[in-house]
């Protein structure tokens, strides 16, 4: 009996186990063919291997970056000192007068700190922070690194707010500010926080403070304009992105655009994708020994109104500004409010290192719709001798783009023919079937094959960036022509040969002037 009971229990247990196996066999997972289960397992293994490889490569890159940062010249006082700027909330609550007063105090403190920190070997003819150098801002009669206002001779006809670019200063907006002043406008040119002092300022200040400064300046423009005068918002590079973002956010929040016209120079709509991950390059800087890894470029500061050194954080913040612009464009498109944008006119070089020129057309203008906007492109010099050396992927797109009808006007400024450097403007008006061609009275210089991102706002006779010899006794960067062997200078030969002025500056001013009169 005992054996029979044990056998019965064993049989019952086997039946229960068999039932569980049958139940499991009927689940969706086990009904899959074996090769699918095998493939899923293999893919999971490959995914983990890929993740491990990426993490390993990232660690190696960070370690290599840390090791490289210990080489070369050490950080200088203008890299380690950080100005005490107003925070974003305080800037928004302030007004123009309060902002400028705080800025003046900050400059005074910064100057004293610099003089204490600078070593005797820092006081050279090419150091902008040495008062006796050829590159000192004092050589220009006025420190154009600071915020300024240009008042018209008579009663104002309008107000313009002009925003400079990244690592730049209010100096870059001087010629445009003078144009607006000559036409009876009050020209307000704010200094973006972190700029105009020392490159170390950009290791702390970013898009929150920049947006706050734009809001403050536009509020001052509205105060001066009242309810009757027009307000123009002008921006260059990163300043153009900030200008566009300011207007779009107002519209997104159900407010009026607040400006009657947007003028953009080399607008930073789409930047190099590396900028998205630029912050990773600065990871080793959390350890003091590797502080130099917080910088993408560490160069002598010989430019009176622009930083040569470039911190990692500035690259990251510039990318985040463009990301904010894309988000705002998507939001307004979804809300069907892009039609509330004021007319936009933009001037852009066909080739542009920091900015995607084609992105300005596809990401911005192709979305705006028909409301009086225009994109002006400056073509490369398609001289029959130099043309075979161009990269078609970078320079071949403007011609086909001009052949398409669009909701906005598209103008291409370039040589009239491969044999003739005289420039013409080829324009397809909004919705037009034909292209109109007009001579502009200017030509490509013999030694220029294209414009550059940094050249757009500067005239050929600019005292610092132009090619026409200056009488000021300063180092004129646009006229530098140094020759020698490569890998000799601590600055790149590209930085010395890059075009720093706009040969078609007069044409650009004439187009902006026409918009002012309208």
Please describe what this structure looks like.
- The chain has 518 residues and is an alpha/beta fold.
- It has 16 helices and twelve strands.
- The protein has helices spanning 2-25, 28-31, 34-69, 77-80, 88-93, 96-117, 174-182, 207-225, 238-252, 278-281, 312-335, 357-368, 392-395, 398-402, 493-497, 505-517, and strands at 148-150, 158-163, 185-189, 231-236, 261-265, 295-297, 310-311, 344-349, 374-378, 409-417, 420-428, 436-443.
- The strands form two sheets. The protein has a ten-stranded mixed beta sheet, sandwiched between helices. It has a two-stranded antiparallel ribbon with strand order 6-7.
- Helix 7 links the parallel strand 2 (158-163) and strand 3.
- Helix 9 runs parallel beside helix 11.
- The chain is globular and about 80 Å long.
- The chain starts with a helix and ends with a helix.
- Mean pLDDT is 86; it is low at 22-27.
Sum this structure up briefly.
The chain has helices at residues 2-25, 28-31, 34-69, 77-80, 88-93, 96-117, 174-182, 207-225, 238-252, 278-281, 312-335, 357-368, 392-395, 398-402, 493-497, 505-517; strands spanning 148-150, 158-163, 185-189, 231-236, 261-265, 295-297, 310-311, 344-349, 374-378, 409-417, 420-428, 436-443. With 518 residues, the chain is an alpha/beta fold.
Order of adjacent strands in the largest pleated sheet:
1-3-2-4-5-8-9-10-11-12
Average pLDDT score: 86
Q: What percent strand?
A: 5-15%
Quote the distance from N terminus to C terminus.
Answer: 112 Å
Shape: globular
Largest sheet: 10 strands, mixed
SS content category:
alpha/beta
Helix content: 25-40%
Number of DSSP strand runs: 12
**Unreliable sequence segments:** 22-27
- What's the helix-strand series? HHHHHHEEHEHEHEHEEHEHEHHEEEHH
* Rg value: 29 Å
Task: Tally the helices.
Answer: 16
